[in-house]
Specification:
This protein is α/β, with parallel strands linked by helices and about 250 residues long. Helices cover about 45% and strands about 15% of the residues. The chain has one domain: 3-Layer(aba) Sandwich (Rossmann fold). The structure holds nicotinamide-adenine-dinucleotide. The site of nicotinamide-adenine-dinucleotide has 28 residues, from helix 1.
């Protein structure tokens, strides 16, 4: 099947990395559904993509009914689903464990981890029907190392890495591949949610001494979403300017 007849969903598609991924997948010939909670940003992001091969779908990825409705909207428009990029996320509370509210902790787990479960659960059946599937999850280096005062985010992203391993094994004998990327600091609006101190500490750990760009993330995701990614599944790919974490 050529990439031109494939359909991708990018959650967090109105965000910094999501927009770059959607644009890259569209340049690769895929039709793209941007899923996001932020209606205004979504309208701008969808209209920035040329042609009628992109739609914006407003969704709350933490809500099962909302995810199902978004899937139906996408299938009604494009007829199939081949690629899911789970990019919706948020940094969540920046607080030591003793000061972190239970509600803020749970919201962070929901937006970063429950969302990956709900969207993957919805997307795999259409992929199996289509005979091709790629799931790419946006984890984080925080999920490998644990950022201080960001325990909810770190735990959620560690959960995404483990979830990716489980799903990769479950689907290894099918045409569906499931992988995740673990970026360090990527220049997007998400960084505004971090304290200056936490951001400086994260940048200082990067051997290349710079943040990555959303386009650099999109390049890796585009490969993981393609036919070329045939013998990797359940894996975590670092995008960390040489940090080379285990
Ligand atoms: N920027 C970085 O340095 C960095 C590093 C590592 C991992 N990541 C991960 O990459 C992903 C994208 O990050 P980004 O930098 O583009 O962030 P961003 O804040 O620019 O975009 C995140 C998007 O997710 C959407 N979103 C949030 N909650 C949602 C919900 N409940 N339902 C639907 N959409 C929702 C937001 O509206 C936003 O458009 C996130 O999962 C993030 O954790 C980012």
């Amino acid at each position: 099947m050529s990439a031109g007849s494939r359909v991708a969903v990018v959650t967090g598609g109105a965000g910094g990395i999501g927009r770059a991924i959607a644009a890259r997948l569209q340049r690769d010939g895929l039709r793209v559904a941007l899923w996001d909670l932020d209606g205004d940003a979504l309208a701008k992001a969808a209209s920035a993509l040329p042609g009628d091969a992109a739609i914006g779908v407003r969704v709350d990825v933490t809500d099962e009914a909302s995810v199902q409705a978004a899937l139906q909207t996408t299938l009604a428009r494009f007829g199939a689903l081949h690629v899911l990029v789970n990019g919706a996320g948020a940094t969540g509370p920046v607080a030591d464990v003793t000061d972190c509210s239970v509600d803020a902790w749970q919201r962070c787990i929901d937006v970063n981890l429950r969302s990956v479960f709900l969207c993957s659960r919805a997307a795999v059946r259409p992929m199996l029907d289509a005979g091709f599937g790629r799931v790419v999850n946006l984890a984080s280096i925080a999920g490998k190392e644990g950022n201080p005062s960001m325990s909810a985010y770190s735990a959620a992203k560690a959960g995404v890495i483990a979830f990716t391993k489980s799903m990769g094994k479950e689907l290894a004998l099918t045409p569906v591949r499931v992988n995740c990327i673990a970026p360090a600091v990527i220049e997007t609006p998400l960084l505004q949610q971090m304290t200056a101190q936490a951001l400086a500490a994260s940048l200082a750990k990067i051997p290349m001494r710079r943040a990555g760009t959303a386009d650099e993330a999109a390049n890796l995701v585009a490969w993981l979403a393609s036919d070329a990614c045939s013998f990797s599944s359940g894996a975590t790919f670092d995008l960390s300017g040489g940090r080379a974490t285990y």
